[in-house]
Design a protein that fits this description.
This protein is an alpha+beta fold. Among the domains are: about 5-100; about 215-365, Histidine kinase-like ATPase, C-terminal domain (Heat Shock Protein 90). It contains six helices and seven strands; from the N terminus they run H-H-H-E-H-E-E-H-E-E-H-E-E. It has helices at about 5-30, 35-185, 190-205, 225-240, 260-280, 335-345, and strands at about 225, 245-250, 255-260, 285-290, 295-305, 350-355, 360-365. The strands form two sheets. A five-stranded mixed sheet has the order 2-4-5-7-6. It has a two-stranded antiparallel ribbon with strand order 1-3. Strand 4 and strand 5 (about 295-305) form a beta hairpin.
């Protein structure tokens, strides 16, 4: 369908063609007439009339264009725009339907992928769970075995530390008494007892039966309290004299026998006495006392040494704790060994101390019924 502008151009062309035809007719008529000024004037007038008619026709067409064309153009444009809009809507609707179909297909694929992924993950988790269970069993068994091995190693190290500590004390006594024999008599008995104590310690390392030694087991042995105190003092007497310290045995009455083997009491008293000598300055005194109570014998080792600071009181029985004793020899095991031996036989090892005022260590063991 021609646009309004095209229609106007066609109409104008027709008018121009009509006017040209009319002019040709006029020119032909003029040519047939005789030439002359009057004829020329007439011809000119006719030409002017024709031109005027042409101009008038053009004005009418232009006026018609101004009056009619805008409405027609608006209608045609509206119709063309509507057609284009309808076509665009149909295209958009088609594209939307295609997009929806593609989206639904993508959602279906995603749903299927998630389903497959979930099944695969569930299977993987199950396999991992089984593998983890097997690994946990192996790890638990390994840790259990390792724990037992570590405990065995620690127990062995502790035993060796105890033996080394006690042997060092016994050998110190032997050394001092041997030096005493070189200058005077009377040290032989102390040496024999120190050697016997060291031999007993070595015997503990090699039990005759295959059953491991239980350091916390009670022994049915009975030991005379007086003899235990006197023997312990006699064994360390020369050690005290070397430091110009007075070592005294003080047994009140007849305290009687206690339910403990002689070796254990000797180890406890030797450790307590040796510790007292170590922390008592020259000119001081260490007193070892035994006294009967209704059902027990109370043993006590008192010194006039430097005392124990209050903040160390809760730790002095820990293995390896030396407090401010860095300048003193020893491994920090003596008090810990003594405490374990006493507690293994139903007793309790305690301490009272004041800085600059000395210390008192005490424990009680049950008497015979």
């Amino acid at each position: 369908m021609p646009t309004p502008g095209a229609e106007l151009s066609i109409e104008r062309a027709k008018t121009d063609e009509s006017l040209q035809s009319e002019r040709k007719k006029t020119d032909s008529a003029v040519e047939l007439s005789a030439p002359g000024a009057a004829d020329d004037a007439l011809l000119e007038a006719r030409r002017d009339a024709t031109d005027e008619k042409r101009r008038e026709s053009r004005r009418e067409i232009d006026e018609s264009r101004r009056e009619v064309t805008p409405a027609k153009a608006s209608t045609e444009i509206t119709r063309a725009l509507q057609d284009e809009r309808d076509e665009a809507d149909r295209t958009l609707l088609l594209e939307r339907e295609e997009s929806d179909d593609a989206l639904h297909a993508a959602e279906a694929r995603e749903h299927e992928f998630k389903r497959i992924l979930g099944e695969e993950r569930e299977k993987t988790d199950k396999d991992l769970g089984s593998e983890r269970d097997r690994t946990d069993v192996v790890v638990d068994a390994h840790l259990t075995a390792r724990g037992r091995a570590e405990k065995t190693v620690v127990a062995g190290q502790e035993l060796l530390a105890e033996v080394g500590h006690d042997l060092r004390n016994a050998l110190q006594t032997i050394q001092i008494n041997a030096a005493s024999l070189a200058s005077r008599s009377g040290g032989g008995e102390a040496i024999q007892k120190a050697v016997a104590r060291a031999t007993g310690i070595l015997d503990d390392l090699a039990p005759r039966d295959p059953t491991p030694r239980d350091p916390t087991s009670d022994r049915a042995d009975c030991t005379d309290s007086r003899a235990s105190v006197c023997d312990a003092v006699q064994g360390l007497l020369l050690v005290a004299e070397e430091k110009s310290i007075r070592l005294v045995a003080e047994v009140v009455g007849e305290p009687g026998a206690v339910q403990c083997d002689a070796g254990s009491i000797d180890r406890v008293l030797s450790n307590l006495i040796g510790n007292a000598i170590k922390f008592t300055p020259a000119g001081g005194e260490v007193t070892v006392r035994a006294e009967r109570t209704p059902d027990t014998v109370r043993f006590q080792v008192a010194d006039t040494g430097i005392g124990i600071p209050p903040d160390h009181m809760s730790r002095i029985f820990e293995r390896g704790f030396r407090g401010d004793a860095a300048n003193h020899e020893g491994l920090g095991l003596g008090l810990a060994i003594a405490k374990e031996l006493v507690e293994a036989r139903g007793g309790t090892l305690g301490v009272e101390s004041r800085v600059g005022g000395g210390s008192i260590f005490f424990f009680s063991l049950a008497t015979l019924p």
